[in-house]
From TrEMBL:
This is Glycerol dehydrogenase. Pfam families: Fe-ADH. Keywords: Glycerol metabolism, Metal-binding, NAD, Oxidoreductase, Zinc. Binds 1 zinc ion per subunit. CDD domains: GlyDH. GO terms for cellular component: cytosol. Its EC number is 1.1.1.6. The lineage of its organism: Bacteria, Pseudomonadati, Pseudomonadota, Gammaproteobacteria, Enterobacterales.
């Protein structure tokens, strides 16, 4: 199997970065279109407009309607055709960025994504999640390449609710352990081949950065500050975790996250909060050393990530419901089958219950 690593063509991170966005976009095209929802437009719209004015570049903007759906993608494609758009810029959350990626793919124009939060590692990836206009999951759309540029304005991101930054740490927490499992099993990664040493190194650095800077970053963000630790955690949540998961592989933690969506009590949780508990379950599943499990437990407790089902909203352990979670995690095609040993639902159920008690 060939070794493959994929990534954005350019990753840019800095404080007040959006005030200089046009400088970075200018070499990519002369007719840019920005998509952002109402909230993000109010938050950074004037800053972005001023940047393009300073660079003497025209700028078209359209309001994102809130759902990365086929009709919304087609609406923006029509706008691109009418206005001869040659570069698409998505500013905001995951669905805005996924829409920009899809439009760029269909129009074959450069894609720039500028997240206003660091709650997942999705911005760097070569995929979009497509929903129905009503918000139900429809399909994954896989692209032949990653975004042309990812721009992280750390001042904007540090000003977002702290829970989102912590959720990003939960998503990033799984990266090293899933990469390690995938490397051991030799299964194909999302990049389409075996992991490179570079991708493995980034996954490990991601975990090390979380342990070193996670708590410091949370404290700084809670007090409205953008410190060096915040900068490091934004990079870990987004770039290190993004390259790590896509080019090193997913395994148990994300499959268990998907299984947890069966529990209505967990629907209020962010992606990374469920992934953090999924990481603990994966470690139990592979019978990792207690010292390693305790390291992960201590980290989760320090930043406020859930370590047991009660913290996730589950009042009583219903074994029948947890069996459904385990079965969903082991569904055909799930990433849990990238673990370096066969996994059955009974194994996952035992690991969930054990992880819950260890984390209580």
């Amino acid at each position: 199997m060939d070794k493959i690593i994929i990534s954005p063509s350019k990753y840019v991170q800095g404080e007040d970065l959006l005030s200089n966005i046009a400088h970075y976009v200018k070499p990519m095209g002369g007719q840019p279109l920005v998509i952002a929802d109402d909230f993000v437009t109010r938050l950074v719209g004037d800053t972005v407009k001023q940047s393009f004015k300073q660079q003497d570049l025209p700028l078209a903007m359209t309001t994102f309607h809130g759902e990365c759906s086929r009709p919304e993608i087609e609406r923006i494609i029509e706008l691109c055709i009418e206005q001869h758009i040659d570069v698409i810029i998505g500013i905001g959350g995951g669905k805005t960025m996924d829409t920009a990626k899809a439009v760029g793919f269909y129009r074959q124009i450069p894609v720039v994504v500028a997240p206003t939060i660091a709650s997942t590692d999705a911005p760097t990836s070569a995929l979009s999640v497509i929903y129905t206009p009503e918000g139900e999951f429809s399909e994954y759309l896989m692209f032949p390449k990653n975004p042309d540029m990812v721009m992280m304005d750390t001042k904007v991101i540090a000003g977002a609710p702290v829970r989102l930054l912590v959720s990003g740490m939960g998503d990033a927490l799984s990266t090293y352990f899933e990469a390690r499992a995938n490397m051991t099993s030799g299964k194909k990664t999302m990049a389409g081949g075996a992991p490179t040493r570079a991708a493995q190194a980034l996954a490990k650095l991601c975990f090390e950065t979380l342990l070193e800077d996670g708590l410091k970053a949370k404290v700084a963000a809670e007090n409205g500050c953008c410190s060096k630790a915040v900068e490091n955690i934004i990079e870990a949540n987004t770039y290190l975790s993004g390259i790590g998961f896509e080019s090193s592989g997913l395994a148990g933690a994300h499959a268990i996250h998907n299984g947890l969506t069966k529990l209505e009590e967990c629907h209020h949780l962010y992606h990374g909060e469920k992934v953090a508990f999924g990481t603990l379950v994966q470690l139990v599943l592979e019978n990792a050393a207690m010292s390693e499990i305790n390291t992960v437990l201590d980290f989760c407790r320090s930043v406020g990530l859930p370590t047991n089902l009660h913290m996730m909203g589950v009042k009583e352990l219903n074994m029948a419901k947890l069996q459904e979670v385990a079965e969903a995690a082991c569904a055909e095609g799930e990433t849990i089958h990238n673990m370096p040993f066969p996994v059955q639902a009974k194994d996952v159920l035992a690991a969930i219950v054990t992880a819950h008690h260890l984390g209580s």
